[in-house]
Amino acid sequence: GASEALLEVNNIEVIYNHVILVLKGVSLTVPKGGITALLGGNGAGKTTTLKAISNLLHSERGEVTKGSILYRGRRVQDLSPEALVKMGVVQVMEGRHCFEHLTVEENLLTGAYTRRDRAAVQQDLEMVYGYFPRLKERRRSQAGYTSGGEQQMCALGRALMSRPETILLDEPSMGLAPQLVEQIFGIVKRLNEEQGVTFLLAEQNTNVALRFAHRGYILESGRVVMDGPAAELRENPDVKEFYLGVS
Ligand code: ATP
Fold it and tell me: Per the database record, which ranges form the ABC transporter domain (predicted)?
């Protein structure tokens, strides 16, 4: 059903450098086929939560010291990011992280590096270009010379090339003009509806995230302080006052 939990984060604690407690017992559920938003201000712990899920904390000297993370009921805490990609979970990191010296198309193809089915990879490339016509126009350009919006599209497109079931998307709006933010979120929504991709997205832009997401979790200082359907959060007086800038 639509509410089947794909990803479950149960009461996790994350500590950096053995001493800095950053997540203080975070729990959240990502239903299959949904768009779930992880909200909160600067430093609330959104990125840390995503990195905990995709096992990217080690290079930051961070570790999950308590709690569990389950994907389709299986404990994934000790899997490598590569193994997680094979299970269908891929992260698009904040700051976009395209390979600057590769062309846009080469970047997209790196997302399919584990796949041997070349015809299908070619088909998926066309699928990505269908969602991002701009990337098709720029396919021979070196990624480092494309705009911030194009790099965000490139990062998302590369993630799609692994045929993910779930995309963990960190701060897609960062550094982009409002019109581009709308465009990126519009594509996220279409990918969700047309390709069935499940999203967990971290976003400081509460306003836009709650318009496109189905559910939201609000983090403050490493704790979930509120969660619920996006439509309810949008109408909540505290959310309005503290996160939507209206009262
Ligand atoms: P932002 O939108 O700024 O990325 P965020 O909600 O994603 O904010 P995190 O990046 O998860 O927040 O950071 C949460 C807290 O952890 C912050 O106080 C930050 O300073 C701290 N932190 C993040 N990375 C490290 C690290 N490698 N070592 C120590 N502290 C860290």
Answer: 7-246
